[in-house]
Amino acid sequence: MKSFKYNIKKILKNSNLYYKHLINWNLILSSENKAIYDDLQIKSNKDETILISTTTGGHLVSSHFDTILASALIKNGKNVEFLLCDAILEGCQQSTSHFIPENIFKKDGPKSLCESCYHSGLLVYEKMGIKINKLGDHISSDERKDIDNILEELSYTELLEYKDNEINLTEDALSGALRYYAVGTLDNEPYKEEVLRKYLKSAIITKIAFKNLIKKKNFSTVVLNHGIYVPQGTISKIAKLNNINVVCYQPSYKTNCFTLSHDTTYHLTMMDEPVSYWENIEWNENLDERLKKYLFSRRHGKNDWEYYFRKPEFNVHEKFKAYGLNINKPIVGMLTNIIWDALLTYPNNIFDNMLEWIFKTIDYFKTRPDLQLAIRVHPAEVNSDRVSKQKVLDEIKKKYVEIPKNIIVIDSNDNLSTYSFADICDSIIIYSTKMGMEFSPLGIPVICAGESYVKNKGITFDPKNQSEYMNILKNLPMKNKLSAEKVLRAKKYAYHFFFRRSIPISSITHKPHAWPPFTLDKYGFKKILDGKDLGLEQICNSIINKKPFIFEDEKY
After folding, report:
1. In the chain, which residues fall in CATH 3.40.50.2000?
2. What are the pLDDT digits (tens) for 7-45?
3. CATH H-level superfamily of 275-500
4. What are phi and psi of 471, to 5 degrees?
5. Given Cys at both, which of 79, 309, 376, 483 links 44, Cβ 3.0 to 4.6 Å?
6. How confident is the model over 94-138, as pLDDT tens digits?
7. Contacts of 386 (CB under 8 A, 6+ apart)
8. Do residues 543 and 106 lie in contact, with contact meaning Cβ atoms separated by under 8 Å?
């Protein structure tokens, strides 16, 4: 039956009737582009292969971008292969409680998604003439039995304490399980043991299969989406352990743009990126105006892939009055993140987690009736494709019987624009939201209590421990805007992040309200073959020559 369904899909795909909004390589390569492409494949350097490790073919943004990147690398003389999961894993990035209820997942894992996920990848890749490696081909039944024997008797605590002799697999498994539930802790989940076991088993399968694959083939570089969770995080670690270059990518905020990093996820590399990459940008009126227009456009999401409001409310004065705040009294804003998202280990975090930061901040403001704290919960808790199971306001209500009158919580379902919210705040406290780099160019003082990209750039207030954090709070309100020097520095960094680290792909066409939200046609492909997609050329150059993924937008 599975083969029958797949063959039907192939027939539809070949006749151009299947998913018209998807990239159709059958159609793209039916034109004069095919002869050029075939010749480039023949001439590609087979001694040095780049592995594009999509793994989850059903993640359509990744699988489609991967084909575009593959074609550009081939154009630049590189041999490329793909890696797909062929339904071998029992927990992965595609598995979420939103799609697979936990009572089903604990028994069957992602089986209900596996067929469509795997075939989605095959349908996109197979017409490109590129080798497709499959995870399941590189692990034996005996190896899988050994994994079952190791894990089947382990308790929940023992699963959390599982130690691999080479890499930290528990980090990948736990982050995957948290992402499945959309929570920040598994403590209250009834099937936590079963779910974590599936993710840990999948991480071990990934490790063994990928190690077996790279014993047979010589890959110079592995390209991954995200670079965290299962299986991508595990593949990234094993690749680095075996001296294979790792490149991780993620769609940027800006439409038709992607952000890439060497070695690991950009969630980590942006933290310690050298300031020399951006602080000497020659600032001028043109750059200033472009940044200003883009930042203003984010209030309505006009130039971004995602936007979390249908009808944002900008009348913040009326909103705050309704919440009982006094506009004439100092207001300090506090911006939270999604509790479960990208839970990574940051060595310099001064709080154990975001909730500890929230609670200690509330406790402090309880002692400051002269100040007002307005907590803005991230709207993506409820306005994205992954509705959070664990929500900030719920956690605050569990902790506090009564919230002091000088503290308000603007919940995630409130349509108040965070931008208008920040406009009347004395200062803003953030944990790891990227909004710090948007408010600093406006002169609004930002306090970074967690690991935000704007931290340690000479722009924000960056406490090194909880004591320093409390001392900064004691000096509130700040009363003044940032100095002109800091505002300029903030503008340069924001420009660097949104225009230089967000690399534009000019060959693709944005498709709002479609999934994936972009496509490629034969004209875009011709642009790739002609080397006229400057962003893709920059990405290929950075991958091949191990250079920073920076698109020097100011030169164009």
Report:
1. 275-500
2. 444 444 444 444 555 789 988 998 788 999 999 999 998
3. Glycogen Phosphorylase B; (3.40.50.2000)
4. -65, -35
5. 79
6. 999 988 999 999 999 999 999 999 999 998 898 899 999 999 999
7. 96, 98, 182
8. no
